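=== Structural record ===
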Amino acid sequence: MQNIRKGLRGDSIILMGKNTMMKRSIRLHAERTGNDAFKNLLPLLVGNVGFIFTKGDLKEVREEIAKYKVGAPARVGLVAPIDVIVPPGNTGLDPSQTSFFQVLNIPTKINKGTVEIVTAVELIRKGEKVGSSEAALLSKLGIRPFSYGLVVVSVYDNGTVFSPEVLDLTEDDLMEKFRSWLSNVTSLSLAVSFPTLTAAPHMFINAYKTALSLAVATEYTFPQAEKIKEYLKDPTKFAVAVGGDAAAPATSAKEEKAEQSEPAKEEEEESDEDLVAGLFD
């Protein structure tokens, strides 16, 4: 606790006390100031809990608290907060302890005069109570599977109490959730034909498609549909518009090829004339 207080010193204060006294203090403060938002903390004052008042970043405060933990042995009757697994390897115990391992169904062998655990064994599962045999074995092996420390169970901010898991959310997580909610709102708005800011653009596009389909199927027209109707009446216009752009580069490429071949032909003729004159000389 002293290490935690030292690590939080400067912008945070830890306050521990009896639950009845803390509840009374909260009620008196709410009556004196008229701020009933603090009463949301009353249902949370159950068990061995306390308060951390801070002006700093909540996520950084929780990370600082998590740094300070002390190893603790497995005591009989204690509810295991985590799974306890005994690793394989040499235990350093003499062979007379073999029967002790057999009671717990832990496979062992004798290696160099000591007991060796062959495979890893899940000794205690999370949520189970520690038995006397499990506690004695862990004590013999010198294993301290549990730890003590402060754990943030709830966060209070401006009258709202929320789970500490919220502090793990990043900006990317918030944006992803916002996009998901936005998509759901848009889908619901389109399904019930109720206009919203997110559904309005889709409604306008769908209305335009419907009007365009009607104009194509009938004599009715409007400026945005005239070009489509022209293409449907004479598809060659669309083909010329596309083919005209593609034909120009092809023609220029042929002309360049012809220009490059003509000088080569002239040079070849000149070289032939020089060769004939040389023979008659």
The radius of gyration is 41 Å. Residues 171-232 form one domain.
